[in-house]
Design a protein that fits this description.
The chain is of the alpha+beta class. Helix content is about 65%, strand content about 15%.
């Protein structure tokens, strides 16, 4: 049975405080990422992708607790994160083009930085001199933190724009 510690991180967003609930597993002190409605960007397709993205991060953390942990499993899981991130980021970028989103350039740059970081992690997990468990832990925590911060500080900015251009909660 796992024991958990709850930690609350509070961030201000548009004069509103958002509470990130971070659950630390006492065994490996890793985070579990929890979706709340505060992360909604009011575009159903993107919200669903964000939920799946966080689930992949949580699966990486679960892998750390697994007795069946292998280097190959770590590589596969990190690859899945990178593949899904590319799919999701591509969806957002297609919407940028479709709606002629005016702030697309810095947003795409943030996406490209994330893509580069996942490639770096893939190289790291293949390095025989580096503990793959440490890489998996770093990847999951980086990706989950990045996504939650990215949603609140970048993705929320396009919500109204997308909604005004016909991309909404039903898309």
């Amino acid at each position: 049975m796992r024991k958990f510690i709850l930690i609350f991180k509070v961030k201000a967003y548009n004069a509103k405080q958002i509470v990130h609930i971070i659950i630390l597993n006492q065994k490996n002190m890793s985070k579990a990422f929890i979706w709340t409605q505060e992360y909604s960007v009011n575009v159903a397709k993107i919200d669903e992708q964000h939920k799946e993205f966080l689930e992949i991060c949580n699966n990486l953390l679960d892998l750390l607790d697994s007795e069946a942990f292998t280097n190959e499993g770590a590589l596969t899981s990190i690859g899945r994160l990178g593949d899904y991130a590319s799919y999701h980021l591509g969806t957002e970028e297609e919407f940028f083009i479709e709606t002629k989103y005016p702030d697309a350039s810095p947003h795409i740059e943030a996406h490209n930085q994330f893509r580069a970081k996942t490639k770096y992690f893939t190289k790291q997990v293949r390095d025989k001199n580096i503990d793959p468990r440490e890489i998996v832990k770093e990847v999951a925590n980086f990706a989950g933190d990045w996504l939650l911060d990215h949603i609140l500080n970048m993705d929320k900015k396009y919500s109204k724009w997308f909604n005004d251009h016909g991309i909404n909660g039903k898309n």
